[in-house]
Amino acid sequence: MTLAVEHYGRIWRTLEKKIPVTLTLDIQNTFYDQDLNAFNIVGDLPGGDKADEIVMIGAHFDSWHAGTGATDNAAGSAVMLEAMRILKASGATLRRTVRIGLWGGEEEGLLGSKEYVKAHFGDPETMQLKPDHAKLAGYFNLDNGTGAIRGVYLQGNEAVAPIFQGWMAPFKNLGMDALTIRNTGGTDHLSYDAVGLPGFQFIQDEIEYFSLTHHSNMDVYERVQAQDMMPQRGHRRVVRL
């Protein structure tokens, strides 16, 4: 059970004053076990002379049922789908194949991305790697709510910082200028990191993510920030993939 911060805070302040708090809860849970399978959604934009090399983007498609999963993670899934749409609509010549993965079972332990990585790239338990492991250029994940993108967690990979600095330069005036060496956890880029592949998660404005919408019945459409979900007009850059 998740409490809204306003309700939790009132309970906390009351208890600090040594006043007893009584809660009455009516919680009904149902476990649906007719079909325990989950699924991933995978799609490609084929590349050209290096089509066997892959750049992947992704987000998780499943959500907690208390709300509608608008910020966790329909927002991330929508951004990644829009990135694929823009690449296709632009007519850009792609040297490498760009692949999107929308994962199931993330909320239960990154199950969808873990199984995909194990099937296509390598087993993290044995570190027996598959041929496609050497053909993945990188995986980029989005799963921190509805806020604007501010930068990238480098996952301890300091050597890649200059590449991201070059990529982000045209968007500095939009507030995307943050790089941190820190590792961030709890989402699907970790499945790639686990087998030695470069997997990264973007830094975003939190926008009430952990204080209100995360895994709660407040995770609904009205909490999505429209201006942060829209492509910024007037900013174009050729990115060679």
Short description:
The protein has 241 residues and is of the alpha/beta class. It is 27% helix and 20% strand.
Write the layout of secondary structure elements.
Layout: H1 5-16, E1 41-45, E2 50-60, H2 70-90, E3 96-103, H3 111-120, E4 122-123, E5 128-129, E6 136-141, E7 149-153, H4 161-168, E8 178-180, H5 189-193, E9 199-204, H6 209-213, H7 226-229
Parallel strand pairs: 2-3, 2-6, 6-9, 7-8
Antiparallel strand pairs: 1-3, 4-5, 7-9
Number of strands: 9
**Helix fraction by DSSP (H/I, runs of at least 4):** 25-40%
**Overall mean confidence score, pLDDT:** 92
For the largest beta-sheet, the strand count, sense and barrel status come to:
7 strands, mixed
Q: Give the helices and strands as they follow along the chain.
A: HEEHEHEEEEHEHEHH
Number of helices: 7
What is the CA-based Rg, rounded? Answer: 20 Å
Give the strand line-up of the largest sheet: 1-3-2-6-9-7-8
Please indicate the percent range of residues in DSSP E strands (runs of 2 or more).
Answer: 15-25%
Shape: globular
Q: N- to C-terminal separation?
A: 43 Å
Structural class: alpha/beta
Low-confidence stretches: 234-239
